[in-house]
């Protein structure tokens, strides 16, 4: 029997991302756990999200894998846009 791949839906709302960029929000992953590669380079395997606004910086408590953090960033863009813009994405 073959395994079915689970597909996680991502809502990519470029309007929400643009709204966040224009207002000064910066959202990015911060690696917190590493593994060494074949050539002694460090590769991030666990991440936390960082949200910057002006001089304020907040680091989330949830940990994400390499595949999960891009989805989480889009979720934060949508959350900020829906909360502060008065429009629903």
What's this entry about, in short?
The protein has helices at 14-22, 69-85, and strands at 25-36, 42-53, 56-59.
Explain this structure to me?
This protein has 89 residues and is an alpha+beta fold. It has a domain at 23-84. The protein has helices spanning 14-22, 69-85, and strands at residues 25-36, 42-53, 56-59. It has a three-stranded antiparallel sheet. The longest helix is centred in the last third of the chain and has 17 residues, at 69-85. The protein starts with 13 loop residues before the first helix and ends with a helix. The model has no long low-confidence stretch (mean pLDDT 87).
Index terms:
2 helices; alpha+beta; single chain; 31% strand; 3-stranded antiparallel β-sheet; 89 residues
Nearest-angstrom radius of gyration?
A: 16 Å
Distance between the termini: 39 Å
Number of helices: 2
Shape: globular
Helix/strand-derived class? alpha+beta
Residue share in helix: 25-40%
The tally of beta strands, per DSSP, is 3
Main sheet characteristics? 3 strands, antiparallel
**Uncertain residue ranges:** none
Order of strands across the main sheet: 1-2-3
Order of helices and strands: HEEEH
Averaging pLDDT over every residue, what do you get? Answer: 87
**What amount of the residues lies in strands?**
25-35%
List strands and helices in order, with pairings.
Elements: H1 14-22, E1 25-36, E2 42-53, E3 56-59, H2 69-85
Antiparallel strand pairs: 1-2, 2-3
């Amino acid at each position: 029997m073959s395994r079915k791949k689970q597909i996680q839906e991502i809502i990519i709302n470029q309007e929400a991302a643009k709204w966040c960029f224009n207002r000064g929000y910066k959202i990015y992953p911060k690696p917190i756990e590493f593994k060494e590669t074949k050539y002694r380079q460090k590769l991030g395997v666990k991440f936390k999200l960082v949200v910057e606004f002006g001089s304020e910086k907040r680091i989330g408590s949830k940990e994400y894998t390499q595949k999960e953090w891009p989805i989480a960033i889009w979720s934060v863009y949508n959350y900020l846009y829906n909360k502060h813009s008065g429009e629903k994405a």
